[in-house]
Structure formats: structure tokens, C-alpha cells
Amino acid sequence: MQQYPIGTPDKPWTEEDKAEWKAQQQIQRRYKDEVLAKLPDELPGFSIVKYGALPYDETRYPLFAVVSETLDENKPTVLITGGVHGYETSGVQGALQFINGTLSSYQQDFNFVVVPCVSPWGYETINRWNPLAIDPNRSFQPNSLAPESAQLMAFIASLNAPIAMHIDLHETTDTDNSEFRPALAARNGTVNENWNIPDGFYLVTDSENPQLSFQEAVIAAVREVTHIAPADENNKLIGAAVLSEGVIGYNKKALYLCGGMTDAKYVTTTEVYPDSPSATAEGCNKAQIAAIEGGLAYLKKQIS
């Protein structure tokens, strides 16, 4: 297997290695044009809240959420996050399309906190990490070193509203094997082992709180717009055992994943596969929206 071009084999990256990696990253798209410009100026019943800014460039990377104007304690609060991994495009664009599309039609039943792009530097450079070579989606922990994670956690805590459902929008791409997993192994001084990239949509539930009927409702909704990833010959997806069709589980709190940042009863991480021969950008966005709406339909039945 070819050695990653940065670092020394079997040794974790030094600060110089991290600086070399950062110097190779390039702006490939504009957060201002592709995200900020798509946020509504006004949305009846909602506030467009600036909850922070990334210290790398606070002017370039303000952080926004769309939040119900009143967090009614008689309604469940739903958290939707996209772009924790900035390169996973449909998570960001799907969240924005949901905001500008059907979000308002659900406000009678739910409070919402929608954060369309948690990692705007990652979005612009098409990166899994932030410029510190830290994965925000492994950094939702006390005293987090990832500003993306720390600022989102502080914002959610400041709302003082228990979260009933959290849907975290992600993708699994072919570049996970070609770039991001080799980079991770090089950074940590370990040996990379690629996994089979599933062809299709799947979910990652919390292994400590799987709520499989909820996961199955989301899968059923997504199946209407795209195909569900089949298990491999070992009945696994990305090395994890399949719990139900298209569903695997991780211990989200132990891994400091975004999906573990609250105590929500219903939690799932979507995984869209944009590199499928049958995939389109719009189809991937629709899959993310279908996952959100499938989750909302399920939650509405539970509170009816």
C-alpha cells in the first residue's frame, strides 16, 4: 500500500506535518455563495441566528442556525445538523433545501434548530477535518479542541431546550478510502485498512439506544427516493454489523460524535452515497430531506 505523502511511517504527525498538510489545502468553493446566500433573509416563525464564527477567519466563517422563534415546551424540539464533515455536500445542501422548502409546514408540531453547515472551512476546502487536522465529528466532548464542535455544543446548551430528535446529515464517499482514511492513519501513525464503500443509503444509530423502529421508518422514507445499501458478505456496512436493513450502530457518546452531543431519544446519522453510478446531486439532497421528513412523521405518531 502506498505511503501517505505527509509524515513518517508508524509515527504520529508532528506540528510541522500538520502545517504541511494544511498548506496543501485549497479553497474549492465558496461558503458565502453556496451556503450563506441560500439562508432566507426572513422565515415566518423562525429566527436566523448567528451563534458563532470560526477563529480561522471570523468574517469569512460566521456560523448560523435557523431556530424556532419560540421554543414551546409543549412541542418536541428537533435538531438537524449538516456539514459536520464539510466535504459531505448533500448534508449541507439538503438541510438548506429543507429550510427553504417544507420546514415551515412542520412548525405547528415541532420546535426546530437547523444548523446547515457546522464546518464551513471544511465545506470550502472539501475536507473531513478542520485546518488543525482535527475531525469535528470526533470532537463533541468537554473542552473540545475543534471550534466547530465547541461552538455548536455551547449554542445548543444555551437554548436550554431538551432535544427529542437529532438527525445528523452525512455522506460516505469514495474519497473516504482514497484520501481521508489514509490521511487519518498517517496522522495517527497507524496502518490504514480501507473498508468496503456501500453502494446506497444507510443510517448509523446509537448502539446504546438504537430505536430500530425509528431507524426503519427513516429507511422506508428514503427508499422512496434512492436505494438502500445492501450488507456485504459478512452482513456488515463499513465494518459494522447490520442491525436492520441499512442500519448500523456506533457508540456515539463514546466516540464523541455529533449524534451523541444531546440526550435525544431519537438519533440517527444519515449516510448518502453520492458516488453511486445512479446518483445525482439533486437525488442526494432529496434523500437527506426524505430522511428528515421520515423521522418527523415517525415522531409525530409518537406524540399523537
Automatic annotation (TrEMBL):
Cofactor(s) recorded in Swiss-Prot or TrEMBL: Zn(2+)
Family in the record: Belongs to the peptidase M14 family.
GO molecular function: hydrolase activity, acting on ester bonds; metallocarboxypeptidase activity; zinc ion binding
Cleaved signal peptide residues: none
Keyword Hydrolase appears in the UniProt entry: yes
GO-annotated biological processes: proteolysis
Residue ranges of every copy of the Peptidase M14 domain listed in the record: 27-304
Name the record gives this protein: M14 family metallocarboxypeptidase
Keywords of this entry: Carboxypeptidase, Hydrolase, Metal-binding, Protease, Zinc
InterPro entries (alphabetical): AstE_AspA_cat, Peptidase_M14
Source organism of the structure: Alteromonas pelagimontana
